Amino acid sequence: MPLKVASFNINGIKARLPRLLEWLEETRPSIACLQEIKTQDEGFPAAEFEKIGYHAIWHGQKGFNGVAILADGQAPVEVQRGLAGEPEDEHARYLEADVMGLRVVCIYLPNGNPQPGPKFDYKLRWMERLRARMAAISAQEVPALVIGDYNVIPKDSDTYSVKAMADDALMQPQSRDAYQRLLNDGWTDAIGLHNPQGGVWTYWDYQAGAWQRDHGFRIDHALLSPELADRLESAGVDKAYRGREKASDHAPVWVTLRA
DNA sequence: ATGGCTTTAAAATAAAGA
Predict the structure, then answer these.
(1) Looking at residue A96, what is its pLDDT?
(2) A217 Cβ nearer than 7 Å to chain B strand
(3) What's the CA gap between A96 and A76, in Å, rounded?
(4) pLDDT at A201 (0 to 100)
(5) With CB atoms counted within 10 Å of each terminal CB, which end of chain A scores lower, N or C?
(6) Residue A246 CB lies within 7 Å of the nucleic strand B
(7) Which pLDDT tens digit goes with each residue over A63-82?
(8) Which stretches of chain A drop beneath a pLDDT of 70?
């Protein structure tokens, strides 16, 4: 059986819990990485996941951000939370674990809007801190994947409208260059590789009928280390979940890996 | 659109998101 690793920016684990549980039961990923849980650690509904067979680790904070890693039938072993290089940064955006023979990194990369400005500067610094950590993981030569909400539109074919997004932090040249450096370092964009023509979205805004008009873009990514890229079988987006009642504004993404 | 939704926190608005 191939291993299935999924990622879902759920936009609030309290508001989304029924949707999240049904997605887990219907698609049954081996490993599920969550972003924007938007809860403090003590509010994380671990018991609800245990009931359906998932063990979890999580890194929360009050009100916004927050990431978690769930695994089917076994507990992820935490390796690191948070990125080095900026001790005053308390945002809960990075969680790294060993599970099922993989190094799994769950990220919620800063949005960076408005740009220019301090939030955009923080985004770019965070991307360089991430790159340093990913280089260290690469040097360990372990099968690894870094999956989650990158808040980067890699190419023009990854958005419904280049014009509408032109001033957005998600597709500034600096954001794209920083993302491209990760690929140049040897990481493989699994979903991009399986959809070379573009036109695949993972996010649709709540506003202006974006979902109904299919006005989306691709910002949730799964990057595979060279050791793991050889095992990539397929990759995709669970698009239909964006159309359900009380949906997140993101759809889940996933990869399957040969044993 | 300086934001047309949505969530959280918390008690009416405000921050944050992308």
Answers:
(1) 98
(2) yes
(3) 9
(4) 98
(5) N
(6) yes
(7) 999 999 999 999 999 999 99
(8) none
Per-residue flag: A38 CB under 7 A of strand B: yes
- pLDDT tens digits, A159-215: 999 999 999 999 999 999 999 999 999 999 999 999 999 999 999 999 999 999 999
> CB of residue A18 closer than 7 A to nucleic acid strand B?
no
Cα–Cα dist A26/A168, whole Å? 35
Amino acid at A85: G
The burial of A41, by beta-carbon neighbours within 10 Å (0-12 exposed, 13-18 middle, 19 or more buried), is given as: middle
Q: How far is the CA of A232 from the C1' of B18 (A)?
A: 29
Query: Which residues is A71 bridged to in the sheet?
Result: A31, A55
Long-range contacts of A162-167 (CB under 8 A, 24+ apart): A164/A215, A165/A217, A167/A115
User: Which of A256, A178, A250 is CA-nearest to residue A217?
Assistant: A250
- Measured from Cα to the C1' atom, the residue closest to B1 is A208
Residue A176, Cα to own-chain centre: how many angstroms?
16
Q: How far is CA A141 from the centre of its chain?
A: 22
User: Is strand B in 7 Å reach of the CB of A158?
Assistant: no
Res A1: pLDDT: 85
Edge-to-edge strand ranges of the sheet holding A94-99 = A77-81, A94-99, A102-108, A144-149, A220-224, A188-189
Nucleotide nearest to A170 (CA to C1'): B18
Quote the pLDDT of residue A74: 97
Predicted local distance difference test score (pLDDT) of residue A118: 96
